[in-house]
Design brief:
With about 200 residues, this protein is of the alpha+beta class. The protein has eleven helices and eight strands. The protein folds into two domains: about 50 residues; about 140 residues, no CATH class. The strands form three sheets. It has a three-stranded antiparallel β-sheet. It has a three-stranded mixed β-sheet with strand order 4-5-6. The protein is elongated, with a radius of gyration of 19 Å. The chain starts with a helix and ends with a helix.
């Protein structure tokens, strides 16, 4: 078996993901991994973590929903799904109710947020991804989360999400304000809307 095939076999055993350490453990020099990245067969997600280029985002989200069955796609992953942000996060963002626990595998990379029932249960909807119905926060709830977590995600992301939402034909300002009230960001939302609309 040649080196490329050996590396690709490691990816296939791990559902399209591999860490540099996984490859080095087999005695294959990381130079061969670098070559696969240059050829476009493998994508570097972050330092030490790679995925096959053929693994689609939808496949990954479907898998993540099985790994975190009580989780809800949130923040960057939800904004990306709704095309409200161009930023593609290096991990999948999932929210779970704070009294629940989840064991995460090494890959795919998942960032879990533990939210109180009051905020976690608001605005959950479902979307079909692949062959699975996955839980994801409603678009308007996701926009309000950008404001609610603006100090963590950054003002640039907050503005990008809100501006992209307001450009949409199907925007629902009443629904947006309802979620803003529930999430206690109504005053900030009204200020932004008075500037942007």
């Amino acid at each position: 078996m040649d080196k490329d095939a050996q590396i690709l076999e490691i990816f296939n055993q791990n559902k399209g993901y591999a860490r540099t350490g996984d490859i080095l453990e087999t005695g294959v020099h990381h130079h061969y991994l670098d070559m696969l990245v240059q050829e476009g067969k493998v994508v570097k997600i972050k330092r030490g973590l790679y995925k096959l280029a053929s693994v689609s985002v939808d496949d990954e989200l479907e898998e993540v929903s099985h790994i975190v069955p009580d989780g809800v796609i949130c923040l960057f992953s939800a904004w990306n799904y709704y095309q409200l942000s161009d930023f593609v996060p290096p991990e999948y963002h999932m929210a779970i109710e704070k009294t629940r626990k989840v064991a995460l595998p090494d890959y795919p990379p998942i960032k879990v947020y533990y939210w109180s029932e009051k905020y976690w249960s608001v605005g959950i909807t479902e979307a079909r991804i692949g062959n699975t119905m996955v839980k994801i926060y409603d678009k308007e709830k996701s926009v309000c989360d950008a404001i609610r977590f603006r100090n963590k995600v950054g003002k640039d992301v907050e503005k990008e999400v809100l501006k992209n939402y307001l450009k949409e034909r199907g925007r629902n300002i009443d629904k947006l304000l309802r979620f803003a009230r529930l999430l206690r960001v109504e005053e900030q939302m009204k200020t932004y809307l008075s500037i942007l609309l």
